[in-house]
Design brief:
With about 350 residues, this protein is an alpha/beta fold. The chain has two domains: about 1-220, Alpha-Beta Complex (Spore Coat Polysaccharide Biosynthesis Protein SpsA, Chain A); about 230-340, no CATH class. The chain has helices at about 1-10, 25-35, 55-65, 80-90, 110-120, 155-160, 175-180, 195-200, 235-245, 255-275, 280-295, 305-315, 320-340; strands at about 15-20, 40-50, 70-75, 95, 100-105, 125, 130-135, 135-140, 150, 175, 210, 215-220.
């Protein structure tokens, strides 16, 4: 009886992994999770219509490990795959992991279980590491600047957004499943960069948080064919629509909440400015008036990335700033490819 009671007190994790044409990376992803010492979890593989050997790899692992559940579906995109996995999950907490990324360490779930039992948060935020090669892994480790490592989310949200800890990403958060399901916090369909809208909505519902102080999540950068390495017209226009909806949403009586959300959208406004010249001339012309009218978002103290942009904005007119950010984008893309090539 005692063993059953203790087991029931331990959180159950649902690790949701969308899979699409990642045959070269999927095994590493799965093996890095399966070596966890804490065993109270399930892995939900959502094969989103893969055309390579990914589907066969999923089947092999499903047969070998009872904790792995496989969902086969036609291709519907990352958002659809995550939503399907979320609806079929049964965990107390949900962890989204991309199938070309992987974890480091075998105590991750055990540590997070301890953190949950101590602080009982709605979300646990962890800082992912940028993985270019085994010899080139970086983590910004911004948590060192925080006054608190857990507690009331809205009280600390300005700091969390400023230091780039609460960012538009699903994979750096471990989230109470009921918070997502009860508030219908699903990923938007037919959107690129869908994490932006989803994270923006999440702000409204989080009450408590904790920071997991180890960087275990290896976010693979520079992979050919990955979503983040192939930003296109739709990505940018989707981000534009999300920022537009976000900054035009009705304000709340809580002034702190309004400032938090505005700072969050300011970060993503900078993304549009950086990628502006990827757009066709027609789309650049169509959204330019809005981008100019939103330049009030360029204000020091919103976010460390916005602060870097503000340094140059002191010397450049708005049009010059956008041109400068385009040069930065090009240089940064070359740097990422070079770093990823040094395997």
């Amino acid at each position: 009886m005692t063993e059953i009671k203790n087991q029931a007190a331990d959180p159950f994790f649902s690790i949701i992994i969308p899979v699409y044409n990642v045959e070269n990376y999927l095994k590493q992803c799965l093996e890095s999770i399966l070596l966890q010492t804490y065993s109270h979890y399930e892995i939900i593989l959502v094969n989103d219509g893969s055309t390579d050997s990914s589907a066969e790899i999923c089947k092999q692992y499903q047969k070998k490990y009872s904790r792995i559940h496989l969902i086969e579906k036609s291709n519907g995109g990352l958002s659809d795959a995550r939503n399907v996995g979320l609806l079929l999950s049964s965990g107390d907490f949900v962890i989204f992991t991309d199938s070309d990324d992987f974890w480091i360490g075998d105590q991750v779930l055990s540590d997070i279980k301890d953190l949950i039992q101590i602080s009982n948060p709605d979300i646990i935020i962890h800082e992912e590491s940028r993985y270019f090669s085994p010899k080139d892994i970086t983590c910004k480790y911004s948590q060192r600047f925080l006054k608190n490592g857990s507690g009331n989310f809205m009280r600390d949200a300005l700091q969390l957004v400023y230091y780039d800890l609460f960012v538009a990403c699903a994979c750096d958060k471990i989230i109470r499943r009921s918070l997502l399901i009860d508030n219908e916090l699903f990923f938007p369909l037919n959107r690129k960069s869908e994490d932006i809208e989803w994270t923006g909505r999440l702000i409204d519902y989080v009450n408590t948080y904790s920071i997991y102080d180890k960087s275990f999540y290896m976010y693979r950068k520079g992979r050919e064919g990955s979503i983040t390495s192939s930003v296109n017209e739709k990505h940018i226009m989707d981000v534009y629509e999300m920022v537009k909806n976000g900054i035009n949403a009705p304000l709340k009586q809580d002034g702190n909440w309004n400032e938090v959300t505005q700072n969050f959208w300011a970060c993503n406004y900078v993304v549009i400015l950086k990628d502006f010249y990827i757009l066709t001339k027609a789309n650049r012309k169509a959204i330019w008036p809005d981008l100019v009218s939103w330049n009030y978002l360029l204000k020091s103290g919103r976010n460390i990335k916005v602060d870097k942009v503000m340094f140059w904005y002191r010397f450049l007119p708005f049009t010059g700033l956008v041109a400068f950010l385009n040069l930065y984008r090009i240089a940064n893309a070359f740097q990422k490819k070079f770093r990823a090539s040094r395997q």
